[in-house]
Amino acid sequence: MKKNTFIFLLGILLSAVTFTSCDKLEDAVEITINTELKTHIDVVPVEGKSTTFKESVDFDPKNSEDLADYINELKSVDLLGVKITVTSIQPEGIELESGSFSVKDKENGSLFVYNTPDNTKLAVGTVFEIGEGYKDWDVIKKMINDMHASVITAVGSVNNDNFKIGYDIAYKIKATASAAK
Fold it and tell me: What is the pLDDT of residue 68?
């Protein structure tokens, strides 16, 4: 009788350990994705010949190819930095007299604005980097961490009234997802 009770209790104990271990195993099977979520914006003179520009583009981080396989299993997303890179410029030698890039959250209306340094000579490869410590960093970080869609707007003026400038905007992120599908 004692032997049957012992075996019964051992069975219950093993069952409890097995279910607990499966939960822990599921939590342990995670994948980390280090990537950049990118979009592109081209700016041209407002209404023909003008030294000013204002262009907008919609951006949804959920459309990232790097995250597509894990979008429903995402546990966390952490924004590490933002990089704005000049990818094309016509004509060469343009100076960005003033400029800003704003990101407006489509879900809650929060707004992040990055002001470029005034009077910046632009060339292909010119980079503006934004990271922790920049004012209102928490606004853009929360927007990306929550995977909210947004509208990105580039506004500014240059020293030429006939121009076209291409910018890539890249959000460097670290995402964690459950690998169990």
Answer: 87
